[in-house]
Automatic annotation (TrEMBL):
Catalyzes the isomerization between 2-isopropylmalate and 3-isopropylmalate, via the formation of 2-isopropylmaleate. Residues 9-459 form the Aconitase/3-isopropylmalate dehydratase large subunit alpha/beta/alpha domain. Keywords: 4Fe-4S, Amino-acid biosynthesis, Branched-chain amino acid biosynthesis, Iron, Iron-sulfur, Leucine biosynthesis, Lyase, Metal-binding. It is an enzyme of class 4 (lyase). This is 3-isopropylmalate dehydratase. It comes from Halovenus rubra. Pathway: Amino-acid biosynthesis; L-leucine biosynthesis; L-leucine from 3-methyl-2-oxobutanoate: step 2/4.
């Protein structure tokens, strides 16, 4: 078993006891809740007449069902209004802060926690949402949990969990122009498969990871779960501390920053830490990755041919054939030139300010292709306001994009933002499952945000390196705090 890793150290620091069934009971430092997965857990608690143990360590937001256009109440969709009301009532009763749209701080749960400065190194963070691993970007242990676990955390402020093995995923070298954290994680999943991480937590390390800004680290950790890992994290460093320092939590509590910093330093994996597995990828060799299929592992470099199903592992061949039929691609072709109908720049993977900046650089002075419907859905109200203040909203709107209010939107289509019929979407989100974007015949091609911007402009999957000669510098800071 691993030893001396951040995972081991933070786990031990939070262990309350080992339970008779062998699981460890961990103290939970931050519990994030949203409208889809929390109502049932609150009902279970209410049925037993129990109270929320740590409302002070719980934070709510609304993201999945919230409309991204007209947000006047009641919401046009009754189911959405009902979920929102349940969340409001539960938060109010328990005394939990709720980042609703009137606060100016609303957004996707995995965008707002870090923005608020509540996602911190060495914390245990849970949320009833599979992409909770995002918060691992800060060196937190962050896990997605199910409804009965949400209930348990609400009731006790702790959670029972099995300890996993740790795989170090080392990405060496320097990423090329237009190659981003999204491409790195799509490449990792392509190589190891969507179940390659089962039983593991991933520690991302190496020069290419250390060079990523916090937005990039969040994109990377966000998709750990798509690779089957229980969680993913990056050891905290100066980049992490710089982000934290500018958040409201720490500008309001500067002493806290000085008090916590030694702890943050102390939890970093030791130089001689032992891992259960190590894999190394040469980051310098990567190019932008896009998916050709219906799982995130079915990806390919933008200039590479789509594989023949028979070239894949035997148990993956049938699924690959079905996927190629659904998407309508042939092995041997590249994805370049594949026509798109919709461009979606959004989701907790890629809707932070640096993502929007990168995409804006591609879009500036150009126009969305006449056959394409293009949307920017910022990850949070803060991201949106910061982007607007920098003039980025104008760049997109002038180019023919719709600029929407924050939420999950077309990432999973629980609101009105949906594909129609067999539309193809160039999407900066994290899942390309059949039906994911609201239409069972709809087709999703996952890619990084500037590639989405490129597809919006040309009307087809495009190697964005051919569109922009710029380097990849967009500023390392979020620019969305305080
Ligand atoms: C609705 C929620 C339970 C779900 C998740 O857990 O991931 C959603 O966020 C998703 O991305 O599919
Ligand atoms: S943006 Fe997508 S992946 Fe992220 S929480 Fe919302 S639905 Fe889930």
């Amino acid at each position: 078993m691993s030893e001396g890793t951040l995972y081991d150290t933070v786990w031990d620091a939070h262990r309350v006891t080992t339970l008779p069934n062998g699981q460890d009971q961990l103290f939970v430092g931050l519990h994030l809740i949203h409208e889809v997965t929390s109502p049932q857990a609150f009902s279970m608690l209410n049925e037993r007449g129990m109270e929320v143990a740590r409302p002070d360590l719980t934070l709510g937001t609304v993201d999945h069902i919230v409309p991204t256009d007209d947000r006047s109440r009641p919401y046009a969709d009754d189911a959405a209004e009902e979920m929102m009301q349940a969340l409001e009532a539960n938060a109010e009763d328990a005394g939990i802060d709720l980042l609703d749209p009137t606060t100016g701080n609303q957004g996707i749960v995995h965008v707002v926690g870090p923005e608020q400065g509540l996602t911190q190194p060495g914390k245990t963070i849970v949320c009833g949402d599979s992409h909770t691993a995002t918060h691992g970007a800060f060196g937190a242990l962050a896990f997605g949990i199910g409804t009965s676990q949400i209930r348990d955390v609400l009731a006790t402020g702790t959670i029972a969990m099995d300890k996993k093995a740790v795989r170090k995923v080392e990405v060496t070298g320097e990423l090329g122009v237009a190659v981003t954290a999204k491409d790195v994680i799509l490449e990792i999943i392509r190589r190891l498969g969507t179940d390659g991480g089962v039983g593991y937590v991933y520690e991302y390390a190496g020069e290419a990871i250390e060079a990523l800004d916090m937005a990039g680290r969040m994109s990377l950790c966000n998709m750990s779960i798509e690779g089957g890992a229980r969680a993913g994290y990056v050891n905290p460093d100066e980049t992490t501390y710089e982000w934290l320092k500018t958040t409201e939590y720490f500008t309001e509590n500067p002493d806290e920053f000085d008090r916590l910093r030694p702890y943050w330093e102390s939890i970093r994996s030791n130089a001689d830490a032992e891992y259960d597995d190590v894999i190394t990828i040469d980051g310098g060799e990567l190019e932008p990755v896009v998916t050709w299929g219906t799982t995130p592992e079915q990806g390919v470099g933008i200039t590479e041919p789509i594989p023949k199903p028979t070239a894949l592992q035997e148990d993956k061949q049938a699924r690959a054939r079905d996927a190629q039929t659904h998407i309508g691609v042939e092995p041997g072709e590249t994805m370049e030139g594949y026509a798109v109908d919709v461009a979606f720049l959004g989701s907790c993977t890629n809707a932070r300010l640096p993502d929007i900046r990168r995409a804006a650089r591609v879009v500036e002075g150009k126009h969305v292709h006449e056959d394409v419907r293009a949307l920017v859905v910022p990850g949070s109200q803060r991201v949106s306001a910061a982007a607007e203040a920098e003039g980025l909203r104008d760049v997109f709107v002038n180019a023919g994009f719709e600029w929407r209010e924050p939420g999950c939107s077309m990432c999973l289509a629980m609101n009105d933002d949906q594909l129609v019929g067999d539309e193809v979407c160039a999407s900066s989100s994290n899942r390309n499952f059949v039906g994911r974007q609201g239409s069972s015949s709809g087709r999703t091609v996952l890619m990084n945000p500037s590639m989405v911007a490129g597809a919006a402009i040309t009307g087809e999957v495009t190697d964005v390196r051919d569109l922009s000669t710029d380097d990849d510098t967009v500023g390392s800071q979020p620019g969305v705090s305080a």
